[in-house]
Amino acid sequence: MAATTQERPLDLERPIKEIGTDLAARMPRPRLVSTARVEQRMTELLMKDPALRAALFRFVDVRPACATPADLIRHLHEFLADAESKTAQRATGITGRPLARRPLAAVAGAGVKRMAQQFIVGEDAKDALPEITKLWRGGVETTVDLLGEATVSETEADVYMRRCEETLRALAGAATKPGQVNLSVKVSALTPLLRPTAPERGIEGARPRLEHLLRVAKEVGAHLHVDMESFDTREAITALTLDLLSQPEFADGPSAGIVLQAYLVDSPEHLDELLAWAERTPRTHPFVIRLVKGAYWDHEVVQAAQNGWAPPVFTDRRECDRNFEALSRRLIDATPTVKVAIASHNLRSISHAAAYADARGVGNDDLEFQILRGLGDDTQAAIAATGRQVRAYCPVGDLVAGMAYLVRRLLENTANDSFLAAHASGTDTAELLEAP
Amino acid sequence: MNTFRNEPLLELRRGTVRDEALAALSALDAKLPLDVPMLIGEDVVHGQVFASVDPSAPATVVANAHAATAQHVADAITAAERGQRTWSQRPASERAAALSRAAGILRSRRFELAALAVREAGKPWAEADGDVAEAIDFLEYYAQGALALDGGRPLIQMPGERNAMRYVARGITGVIAPWNFPLAIAAGMVSAALATGNAVILKPAEQAPACAKAVVDALHAGGVPLEALSFLPGGDEPGKALVADPRIHTIVFTGSCAAGLNILQTANTFVPGQRHIKKVIAEMGGKNAVIVDSDADLDDVVPGLLKSAFAFGGQKCSAASRALIHKAVADELAERLAGAISTLRVGPAADFATDVPPVIDIAAQQRIQGYIDSAKPLAQGDSRDDGFYVAPTLFQGLPTDHKVIQEEIFGPVLSLETVESVEHACELVDQSAFALTGGLFSRSPRTIEYVTERTPVGNLYVNREITGAMVGRQPFGGGRLSGTGPKAGGPDYLLQFVEARAVSENTVRHGLVV
């Protein structure tokens, strides 16, 4: 879109720096981060050594499939042996290498579980309630995401739908004020029929279950948010969500929303579609659009490369960040027809959206910030402390189900271009706040 | 070789691309039935007509082809004797350029040819498109490979002698192609022979002559002389005559094990007047097993097995027909697969929503149904009766000597067997007479190493589906009764089509090295 670059108000950079500096000052400094020493050292090692990073991810990934401690140790040993042999091939020695065994061994078994618990608030809704109500009491809103295995049958889709319903009702029972119950759902878990070349099959398959959940959400006064997944499924997810929300029975509730992925090259056009729909579909609760960078970048790039396609995602981080900002501005301009959620851990992206919203006089009623529980806790605290609305995305599930989620978050957390990695390694705040 | 890139697949997940595909299908439908005559040297020859039909709608005739007789084969070989002389004398670069131009022609007819494979072979769109892309890949890959081969191999040189080894064409090559990759395998076998300077006579599968004709037309239009490439649709008669003729040097075959063994026998029977040993390059199917270890991620295993066993109705040489599952996860996986099989939509190949298309013809339908009726299924998907449909079927716990476990079914049938360990699974695989593809789902590097060393199969796929070999990335072919071993789409394949000539020249004249 031509509009993405020409509209930046000239006076935005100063407020961005002010807001960002203020937020950074409210976050614990890297050296004071209250994570255990083992985890701290592990994060450092992982960022320095891709082979070790791969070994750890493979270990975390296989952890729930290991029936016995012996089985667990065998896998760990194999991954380590492979990592060491690769590292040894390098021309220069890696000083961290002799240290590798200790921190990696330390995360074995209970360690992985503890790590998973840092991201996952509980095994099920009941188990998660204490943690969630604690966040509520601290002024932080939540959205719950039920982790699970891939849905390959209708039975599994029914199980996921029932878990969603139980969660909505359990949260409603504990809620202390209206609008507090918020659940994020995955269409891929609501049907085994999603097919990239036939979106209508996934739409038909998921429709009755999503419709049921919308009715439950309306009944208990909850917000239902439809998550976005890989590009293969975007068409089906979008069409299904917009179609159901166009039904007269849902015009006056529940509150509902969808996700816009800024890493997609055609996300500006996708936003056109979402905004046009929102304009012509009046709702009692404004349609919520959560802006994210997108969590399937590696998948999209690999799939495109293997099939000979142009990747659907930006491969340049700065271009992606610029798009995120352009979309933020368009979304904020579209309030109050839509409600905006800026879901990012990037200090610059957050500060930019806050500064632009301030300039446009858009406040907490129409704009909130979202962070991932366990990953953006410091950011969440800082945003909340400045009086802006913040919501934590809280995964709920058992250890087995949590692994795919955990691996993805760990990959993000230790990626070279990760804001958190940069922050943890002590990158200067001013540098983090530079315009992309 | 390093400039080769696989032809990009159509991005069918985008609605605009799907629309273009459907438009191409409508355009094709308006032209049906196609006429597919014989092409014998310079002549377009007509004969007794037989039809290829749409397996999704058998009343629809896709092509009327003209059946070759033994006499037509003899005529084609006579033409090929002339073609062999002229074509083998062309520079390798000229031959490669012709193949590359043919690839360009296929590329320009991308949607149309995919539509043809949808109609004539009952291939679902993604598979049909993969077939076109692979045909293009073979042409480009072998064109470049033949150029690389043209320089010969370096030899040890001594003072006073000049040693050289180069490769020359073997001679007239008979190609007998299958229907399941009606474009790609025909293009691959023909172009490997042509690239290395051999004249070719192609006998396409009876079920898909129009697809093969499209490949031949592209090669002729690209610059392959008519005499160097003849085309003989038909059934057994031309195939048998082609194999038996003493003037044939090389026979390239992809098809059933029984037919392959017959070809080997005939080809090895010396005919009076024959002045060479015939060579047979055969790819003859498999009984492919996927091993699932206790540490496998079942979220990956279920879709991987569904795709391997049921995509294109299991009608790929590489398709999975056995899953050997560690006892620790056997019950859970069986339950999830049983639930998943009913999510597969059985339907016409042209429908983008179809997961499992019909099988190729009524004979295949009846043969596969015989296997399905021979035991009680664990679970079964839908079927329908307006085409050659077979319900995707899952068996569990059949005795090892059951024919469903032992024989190649070539249909949408998967049997689950519980094993004590990966070692146990490897023993079962080792007992098979086939050794084409195999799969392993495991997250243990040592287990992956173990199975890699222990397996007899030609292509092992780890933590992924076991079909979909790509030219230059997964050179394809198996051992034992699965074939004679050369890897199609790999760096060694062209060596099957050439003979080496070594020349050693004395460069000493009057005691001086000149």
Largest sheet of chain B: 7 strands, mixed
User: Helix content range of the residues of chain A, please?
Assistant: 55-70%
**Strand order within the widest sheet of chain B?**
14-15-16-13-12-18-19
Structural class by secondary-structure content of chain B: alpha/beta
Q: How many strand segments of chain B?
A: 23
Number of strands of chain A: 8
Number of domains of chain B: 2
Tally of helical runs of chain A: 20
The pair of chains with the biggest contact is: A-B, 36 and 36 residues
Gross geometry of chain A: globular
As a whole number of angstroms, the C-alpha radius of gyration of chain A is: 22 Å
Largest beta sheet of chain A: what is the strand line-up?
A: 1-2-3-4-5-6-7-8
Count up the helices of chain B.
Answer: 15
* Percent range for β-strand residues of chain A: 5-15%
GO molecular function, one term (chain B): L-glutamate gamma-semialdehyde dehydrogenase activity
Protein name (chain B): L-glutamate gamma-semialdehyde dehydrogenase
Active site (chain B): 283
Enzyme class (chain B): oxidoreductase
Describe this structure in words.
The complex is a heterodimer of chains A (436) and B (514). Chain A has 436 residues and is an alpha/beta fold. Chain A has helices at 3-6, 13-26, 37-48, 50-62, 69-88, 101-107, 110-119, 125-137, 154-174, 187-190, 199-220, 234-245, 267-280, 297-307, 317-333, 347-360, 377-385, 399-414, 419-424, 429-432; strands at residues 141-146, 182-185, 223-226, 255-261, 287-292, 338-343, 367-372, 390-396. In chain A, α13 (267-280) links the parallel β4 and β5. The longest helix of chain A is centred in the middle third of the chain and has 22 residues, at 199-220. The radius of gyration of chain A is 22 Å and the shape is globular. Chain B is an alpha/beta fold. Chain B has helices spanning 15-31, 70-89, 92-108, 110-121, 125-150, 184-195, 209-222, 236-244, 257-267, 298-310, 327-341, 362-372, 403-406, 422-430, 445-454; strands at residues 34-36, 38-40, 43-45, 48-54, 57-67, 161-169, 173-176, 200-203, 229-231, 250-254, 279-283, 288-292, 320-326, 379-380, 393-396, 413-419, 434-435, 437-441, 459-462, 479-480, 498-506, 508-509, 512-513.
